[in-house]
Design brief:
- It is built from 4 helices and 9 strands.
- It is of the alpha+beta class.
- The chain is globular, with a radius of gyration of 15 Å.
- Helix 2 packs antiparallel against helix 4.
- The strands form 4 sheets. A 3-stranded antiparallel beta sheet has the order 5-9-8, with helices on one face. It has a two-stranded antiparallel sheet with strand order 1-2.
- The protein starts with 5 loop residues before the first helix and ends with a strand.
Length: 193
C-alpha cells in the first residue's frame, strides 16, 4: 500500500479523477498485489482505493491469491481506458469489456448516469473483479459486459459462484458486501460503504 505515485496520478487526472470528485489524492492509496492469471501464471497488478479500505482490500486479494483464484488483469482506471462516454470518469464500459479488475473511478452509478449520483467507486470504496465472469445486471435487465456468465454461476475460474464461496468470503470477511446478492445482481462488485 502506498500513496498514489506521481506517474499514476498524472494518468488519472482528467480521467478517473477530475475537479469536483468527492475524494482527492490524499485520501486514496495504491494497493499492489500478486494474483493468479487465467494463464496459471503469477502476475502483479494494482487498484486505487480509499485509504480506509486499503488494508481490507489488500487482505482480500491476498486471500484470493492463496486460493489461486484467477484474475484476468488488474490495472487502475486512468487515461489508458479513455473517457467515460456517459459522464465523468474513465471509461468503465471499456474496462468491463477488457475484463479488468479495478476500484476507484470518479463516475456516476453505472446505468443510471442521468441521475448524477456518485458511485461508491467515486469514493474508492468499491472494487469490481473479473467483469466478464461476474457481470452486472442493471434495473432494465441489460447485462454488462456480456450475458454469458449470468446463468453460469457454478464454480469456475474467476467466478464468484455464491455468497458461501471462499472467494466471496475473502471480501466479506474484510467488511465488504457483495453485489451478487442485490435485487439487480452486480456479481463483480464489492462495496465497503
Amino acid at each position: 500500500m502506498s500513496s498514489i505515485p506521481d506517474s499514476l496520478w498524472r494518468k488519472m487526472v482528467g480521467y478517473s479523477w477530475t475537479s469536483g470528485c468527492p475524494v482527492g489524492r490524499s485520501s486514496l492509496r495504491y494497493v499492489t498485489v500478486n494474483f493468479w492469471g487465467f494463464d496459471g501464471k503469477r502476475s502483479r497488478g494494482g487498484v486505487v482505493v480509499h485509504q480506509a479500505v486499503a488494508g481490507p482490500a489488500a487482505r482480500a486479494f491476498t486471500a484470493l491469491y492463496e486460493q489461486r483464484f484467477r484474475i484476468r488483469q488488474m490495472q487502475p482506471m486512468d487515461s489508458s481506458w479513455g473517457h467515460n462516454p456517459k459522464g465523468p470518469g474513465a471509461d468503465d464500459y471499456a474496462a468491463m469489456a477488457a475484463d479488468n479488475t479495478s476500484a476507484f473511478n470518479c463516475r456516476y452509478v453505472g446505468g443510471q448516469e442521468s441521475r448524477k449520483v456518485w458511485s461508491n467507486h467515486a469514493y474508492g470504496k468499491a472494487i469490481d473483479v473479473n467483469d466478464f465472469e461476474n457481470p452486472y445486471v442493471d434495473a432494465s435487465g441489460r447485462v454488462y459486459p456480456d450475458p454469458y456468465f449470468v446463468s453460469r454461476r457454478a464454480a469456475a475460474p474467476g467466478v464468484f459462484s455464491s455468497s458461501r464461496s471462499a472467494a466471496v468470503r475473502a471480501f466479506t470477511s474484510q467488511g465488504f458486501s457483495w453485489g451478487g446478492l442485490w435485487r439487480h445482481p452486480d456479481y463483480q462488485h464489492f462495496d465497503a460503504s
